Amino acid sequence: MNSNSKRTGSLISIQDSLVKARFFENVIMGETAEILVEGKFLQAEVLQVASDPKNAKAGIVEMQVFEDLTGAKIGDLVVFKGKALSVLLGPGLLTSIWDGLQNALYPLSEQDSYLKPGMKAPALDEEKLWDFTPSVKPGDSVCGGQVIGSVPEGRFDHKILVPFDFGKCKVHTIIESSRVNITQTVALVIDEHGKEHELKLVFSHPVKSPIPFMQRSIPNKTISTGVRVIDLLAPVAYGGTVGNPGPFGAGKTVMQHTLCKYALADIIIMAACGERAGEAVEVFKDFAELADPSTGESLMNRMCIFGNTSSMPVAAREASVFIALTVGEYYRYQGYNVILLADSTSRWAQALRERSGRQGDIPGPEAFPMDIPDQIKGMYQRAGADTASGGSLTFIGTVSPAGGNFQEPVTQATMDSTGGFWGLSQDRADAKKYPAIDPLVYTNSVYDSFISKEDREQIVKTLQEANDIDQTISTIGLKKVPVEKYVLYQKGQTIDFCVLQQDAFHELDACTRPERLQIINKAVQKLIETPIHFSNGEGEDEELKEQIKTEFDRLRLWWKDWNSNAKSETELASLPEQIEHFVLQEQYA
Ligand code: ADP
Ligand code: MG
User: Fold this and answer.
1) Is the shortest distance between the CB of 435 and ligand 1 below 6 Å?
2) Domain shared by 64 and 152, yes or no
3) N or C: at which end does the chain have fewer Cβ atoms within 10 angstroms?
4) Burial of 421 (C-beta count, 10 Å sphere; 0-12/13-18/19+)
């Protein structure tokens, strides 16, 4: 793309975030442009280039504008930038909070307490000094993606890379170890055509061109998320993908926050996409103050947040997810385990729907673009594990189907694209059974659990049987249910209540690590596999069932208490002991 001569155009039509402009030079699909509206430059992206039926020398571009177009008029100036929508990569990404276009939000809020169109702030702090240590010397050959040095970024070693689109180059000069900011040149390299390029600590990368894998591999190492129902029954591996659909209020956002705090990863990226503004503001405030449970440092030291709330222009949602993915790939390339949390991908898909509607595309199911499944697949495919770098990018996206209808296109396409699926159920949320992941409906995972496949199947089978008995009880009544079945039902209830349900806000209960999970699983398996003999002599079945319920209630209370208190080795060991006594129906503490 020729970026030397200034290429311009002028607006000829404005339709919400979609505009058309006439131009006379060469314009390229996907390049960015700025539209001058009332003295401010608004960011836009070229979607389509066509010839002008009215003027053989001109062309017409169709563009989507990422910012509010209030005040735009026919004839307004368009400046083409010769560059695809890009993200700035380099030290300082962590701890940052941006809007959907990587404008840093804190500096913006210093300009004005409300976001206004055209407001811009540097994506990364331009003044902060970083301790750069070079790792190549003059005369060395380097190419795109190669490391030329590093800076410490908090507790991370941030590698300084040659931009990915560079071919083979020779290092001409490189600075000695020193403190530099991101605007300073650290190295000069010369390409094969003899052209000089200045390298800095940062470079920009087009967000729709995935950063390559060094060596892509199948995700096979389970992540400890701390959430029992996930780690037992619907696990996710480093580099894996998960769709997390649920109706409004079922707990998708709480789940994302829980994962932010407890999922074992080096880096967490949040893309708050189109959700309520108040919620996003809360996150920003909370997370700045929260301590990372694994290090005691501020949680933000390993995080960055893209906040693109419902009050911001819809078109920017599309950009924000791609920007977040690219940042994730960048850290994966450096060898870090990254988890990207996107809330909600449905809002992202709505942005695509609005755009394709305005462009007059032939609509697919529910007016989404025909290629929505491919677009969703393409997004999740950018996640993955990399054995050569040792890093991974895990992508967990919430889906918010209208009315909780999982048959709609975005939920269905997500199910087809992801290795794991956590379906939140309205019924469970209504009953305050949190997290509301329903292990029997739409929940599955291709990844290995912390427990064996057989144990996992045993648990699901027991829950399924208990659920069936529950149905029977509510249709034909408890009386018709045999005692052994009732015991099975109580076992299922116990697993659900004491293991699957977990208090996201309780200090100890909120997070269960694998060692503790193993103890719990042992207890659960013992409970499942041992026939328990309850007896009341010659008494009625109904009385016996009452007695069984009482016994199980006692066990459940004891177990809940264990969840919130057991810490020491002896306390931990008390669970299997308790179950041992219980299944023998011995007197227990
Ligand atoms: P969604 O994002 O799906 O619309 P939220 O995550 O905002 O739903 O959850 C709605 C409410 O449900 C929360 O404000 C909280 O009160 C409750 N809730 C959800 N998940 C949990 C949980 N794991 N533990 C306790 N309360 C929860
Ligand atoms: Mg939410």
Assistant:
1) yes
2) no
3) C
4) buried
- Does residue 406 share a domain with residue 304? yes
Q: Is 249 in the pocket of ligand 1 (CB under 6 A)?
A: yes
Q: Where are the alpha helices (DSSP H) in 359-506?
A: 372-381, 409-417, 426-430, 453-476, 483-495
Task: Summarize pLDDT for 69-115 with one digit per residue, the tens.
Answer: 899 999 999 999 998 889 999 999 998 888 777 777 665 555 555 55
Distance 398 CA to ligand 1 centre (A): 13
Residues 257 and 330 occupy one common structural domain: yes
What pLDDT is attached to residue 416?
A: 96
Do 224 and 286 have their domain in common? yes
Specify the CATH number for the domain of residue 471. 1.10.1140.10
- Ligand number, closest to the Cα atom of 250: 1
At a CB cut-off of 8 Å and minimum separation 6, what does 489 contact? 465, 466, 469, 470, 473, 481
- Is residue 415 located within the same domain as residue 467? no
Domain of residue 490, residue span: 454-583
Q: Is the CB of 488 under 6 A from ligand 1?
A: no
Atom of ligand 1 nearest to the CA of 248: 4
* CATH code, 71: 2.40.10.170
pTM of the complete model = 0.92
Q: Shortest CA distance to 260 belongs to which of 220, 230, 296, 304?
A: 304
CA 345 – CA 318 distance, rounded (Å):
9
End-to-end alpha carbon distance in the chain? 76
Task: Identify the nearest ligand to the CA of 251 by its number.
Answer: 1
CB 434 near ligand 1, within 6 Å: yes
Q: How many CB atoms lie within 10 A of CB 450?
A: 20
Which atom of ligand 1 lies closest to the CA of 275? 2
582 CA → ligand 2 middle, Å: 40
One-letter-per-residue 3-state SS of 92-139: CCCCCEECCCCCEHHHHHHHCCCCCCCCCCCCCCCCCCEEEEECCCCC
